[in-house]
Amino acid sequence: MTTTELDLRPRVPATEPVMSLRGITKRFGAVRALSRVDLDVYPGEVVALVGDNGAGKSTLVKILAGVHQQDDGTITFENAVVSITDPAAARELGISSVFQDLALCDNLDVVANLFLGHEVTTGGVIDEEEMERRSWELLRQLSARIPSVRTHVAALSGGQRQSVAIARALVGEPKVVVLDEPTAALGVAQTAEVLNLIERLRERGHGVVFVSHNLADVQAVADRVVVLRLGRNNGTFNTRDISYEDIIAAITGATDHGASRNPFTEEPA
Amino acid sequence: MLADLRRTGSPRPGSGARPGYDVNVPEPRRPTGNQAALREANRSRIIDAVKHHGALTQVELAGTTGLSPATVSNIVKELSTSGVLHTAPSTRSGRRAQRVTLAHQLGLTVGIHVSTRHMHVALADTRYTVVTEHRMPLARHHRADSELDKAALLIADMIESVDADREEILGVGIAVAAPVDHGTGMIARRGLMRGWDGIPIAESMAQRVGCPTYVDNSSNLAALAELRLGAARGRSDVVVLELSDGIGAGIVTGGRVLAGQHGTAGELGHVVVDPHGPVCRCGNRGCLEAVAGIDAVLDVVNSGRSRAVNFTDLVVAALTGDDESIRAIADAGRAVGRAVAGLANVLDPQRVVVGGEFARAGELLVGPIRHAFEAGLLRDVGALPELVQTELGGRAPVLGALALAIDALDIQDLVIHDE
């Protein structure tokens, strides 16, 4: 790659987080899914959220997406305390999520999927040409390998569908993109595609929250790794200074980075 | 057209830069405003699109390139008669369609480049025309077994994506970012790529893909690629620098790449440049690599910062005028320049080619290298070896890996395949 291909928009190094979660707690009846979880996301940074099953990753992601609301704790977005009451509010703020099931419409083509719900109109008429032009622009920026934007999504491969879902998340130019298990159930070539895509997102200056079980993928693209264990933070690490074994140790609880406070002396459930 | 495409080796898709026979070929002037020029532009658009996607139907080609289906059909017909493209009947959404791929007579070869943080796999014919390629980021301390597994799966995917068969693969070349002992086929010195120590890499990969596999150091292979297709073409004595996380040099003397007794020739990164410097991954103190490798530079830049920057961030910051970043890159460049001057005084090369990931910093790095290099040379001005940037971009090692596989092919076999 030559220097001319680099995106020179000023973006790094940002010292202020674009999004900052403090003391997030969420209970489902008697089950405490999250207790006092902290998370910072900086612009142009990939934060991996890892943890065992039931560690609270999905709950946290759903709070960010506006599916659930936290019982306690604050979310600061671009230096303002915000409440994310529903998915539309999350989108409006500039938090865009891609879930595991992708939620694409198989019977529609790529363009229709990208702009579903906010079609571009001119004079009250849907402007297909403009939408197609913008779709190409977006997919090209992501270097996504989509042969045609008029293909029905049903005909695309797993990696291509993931690319479309990620591209759709970028339509409203969000500040933070949340990806829930984007490489699960993909082949090697498609995983490579998605990981490259995540690097593009980073270069475009988005803050990326990347939930994954695959630590090889995490170590390949993440700048920081946030470990959750039993609903609590169990350490935040820079990928530069951490080994695979360190992450496993934090996930399984072999090492303790402040997670196992005594549950009986802590706030009542 | 056929001859032209082959002669230009494997240009980077879409970049317009074409490594040719003559090293200083300027960007081909694109005549504008007439029918022939338009047709030429459309042709290259179609070839670029096919290269990018591996295989496309004609309808998809029309969508991707924005050309009319009739134009696509005409150009594809023309290019397949001249042997550049290959078409095969297929179906798309239940209708008949023409699937278009780059033509690959003589079978295919695979080149793999494993660097500290990336894997790059390219599928090419025996004339270096890359049919399809994939890059993927790797974890910091990746391991031979899992990465070779990944590579094998990726190759299978890629073969399928260009409508080829496993049998068409004639050979695999692997470039690794560490010296390889030609006797044992393993990394020549422990500790340089920890996850790959003690593994007979070529054998291990050959078992996975079922065809002959060859392995060598990526700097040596980058030198081979520059010699065949890039900035070292037609020259016999050249030093090719690979500046990345590690630093290596591929040394060409008398038209051949120097391997040395154990395959560690050209390990410029482990020349001690500062006896009081930081400890290197090889265990010595103050190696060039520990002072001027990308990792080392980032360590310096990131010390005392709460948020770590990565290499792209550093280059962008430097390009937009950040003094600290400019200085960090320039310091590295000067250290490299001094070391290369020493090497050039010993070897007396015609050219020094600067490549590797760090070369993406462009003149920010090459300027200081040149300055320190020229200051340290023994020769009179006027007879200085030229210091130039790579013409192959980041693809030199993978093209070198392809060259390694292609060189090992039995020519007789090829002739029989060709009939």
UniProtKB/TrEMBL annotation, chain A:
This is ABC transporter ATP-binding protein. It comes from Luteimicrobium album. Transmembrane segments: none annotated. Keywords: ATP-binding, Nucleotide-binding. PANTHER family: CARBOHYDRATE TRANSPORT ATP-BINDING PROTEIN MG119-RELATED (PTHR43790), SUGAR ABC TRANSPORTER ATP-BINDING PROTEIN (PTHR43790:SF8). Residues 19-255 form the ABC transporter domain. The keyword Nucleotide-binding applies. GO terms for molecular function: ATP binding.
